Records
---
Amino acid sequence: MTASQPAPTRPPGHGESTMTAAVQDRYGETGDVLHLAQVARPTPGPDEVLLRVHAAGVDRGVWHLMAGVPYAVRLTGLRAPRNPVRGREVAGRVEAVGSGVSTLRVGDEVLGIGNGTFAEFATARAAKLVARPAALPVEQAAVIGVSATTALQAVRDHGRVQAGQTVLVLGASGGVGSFAVQIAKAYGAEVTGVSSTGKLDLVRSLGADHVVDYTQGDVTAAGRRYDVVVDIGGSRSVRTLRRLLTPTGTLVFVGGEGGGRLLGVGRQLRGVLLSPFVRQHLRMFVASENAADLAELTDLITAGTVTPVVDRAFPLAEAGAAVQYMTDGRARGKVVVTV
C-alpha cells in the first residue's frame, strides 16, 4: 500500500459487526503480548466518530499500557488493560458520526488521536481530530497526534522557547525528539540535539545546529549551559540536568521514563518539588489533546517547516514487532502500523 492509497477492504467472510485488531489479554513488556483477533467493531458515542483506520502511530504510551508499567497504569485493569486494543495516534477516514458532531462528515480524511487504533476501525472524539492535508501521506499523518503535540507543548508552553535562546533536546532522534528539534528551530532557537552515534545524521538533517553523541561521554562534560533543556524519556538525575541549565533556565520533563516502576514520575516530581526553591524552572506536564494544536502542527507541516520522520511501517499483523522496534531504541523518528 502506498502512502496515498486508502487501506484495503476487509477480507471476505468478516461480519459487519466485527473487525480485526491487535489485542492483548495480559500485560507484558515485549511485543509478543499483542496478537490479532476478531473483536466487536466499536460504535461512536456522543461527540465521537467512527474511523476506518489507514495507519496508526506507535508512541511510548502504547508500551506503557501494553506492559502495565509503571504499575499505576494498572488502575485501568489489574490483569490486562480494560480496552484490549492498543494504539492512539491515527490517520483515517470518517465512517460514521455520533450525535453532537457537526465539524466532521462521513468520508472526511482526518488525523489525530483515537481509541484503540491498532485495528481496522476505531472511535475518536471529534475534538481530537483535524482534516488531513491532501498532500500529507497517511503514514506521516498518523504520527502527529501524540508525539508532535507533546513536542509542541514542551517547546512552546512549558519551555517557552523564544528566538535567540539555546535549547538542548535529550532524545533528539526519537518520536517526540524529532519533532521537538524542528519546532524549537521554527521558534528561532539555537538547537543542540543529543542521540546515539548511528542517529547523529538524522538529528543534523532535522536542522539541529549542534549534535552530541551520548555514547562518547557525559553531555555535561562540555560545560555548556542552555536556556531550555527538553529531557525526553531520560534517566539523568535532576542534579545532572540542572548542571545543563543557565542560572534561570528551564528544564522540561517529557514522558515517564526514569521515574520508577511504581508511579513512573518519581524523578520528575522531585524536580517539580524543588523548583520553587531555586531560580531555575523545573517542569513536568501531561499533554493536552486538542484540535487547535493539531491544526497548528499541520500548518507547520504544510509550510515545510516541520516534517514527520517515519522510520518504518509495519502491517497490523506485526503490531507487536512495531512496538518492540520502538522500545528497543532502534527507531529513527517514528514507527507506524498500517491497516
Note: Residues 147-284 form a domain with the Rossmann fold fold (CATH 3.40.50.720).
---
Amino acid sequence: MDEQDKKALDDIEQYGCHVLSIMEGEGEPCFSYSIGINKKQGKPDLVVVGLKSELAHSIINNYKDRLQEGELIEPGKFYSDFLGGFDVCFDKVSLKHYDEYFGWGKWLHDGYEFDVLQLIWPTTEGVWP
C-alpha cells in the first residue's frame, strides 16, 4: 500500500470519506468525488462536476455530514441549501461511467458494488441540464 492509499483509508476512518479532485482534460470538465461514504454509511458517494475543487470539496463534506446526521438525500428531490441560492437535485450515476470516473471507488470496494449520486444544478438563468 502506498502513501496515497494510506491517506485515503485514514481520511475515511477519521472523517468519513476521502475526496478526490480531477482537473479538467481535453473537452472534459473538472470533477470531484468522494470515496468511503458508501463504505462507512451504506449511502451513496457523491460526484460534483464543473465546480472549483474547493467548492466541490465543501459540498461533498456538507453532503457527508448531513447523511451522518440522519438526513435522507433522495434522487430527483430538490434541495435549496447545498449551493448558495440555487436549487439542486441529485441523480444516480450509471455503472457504465464507473470505469472512466471512479477508479478509486472501484479500488476501495474491489469492484462495482457501490452507489454514486451526481449533484445537478441549473445555470444562473435557471435552465436545468
Note: The CA atoms of residues 86 and 119 lie 12 Å apart.
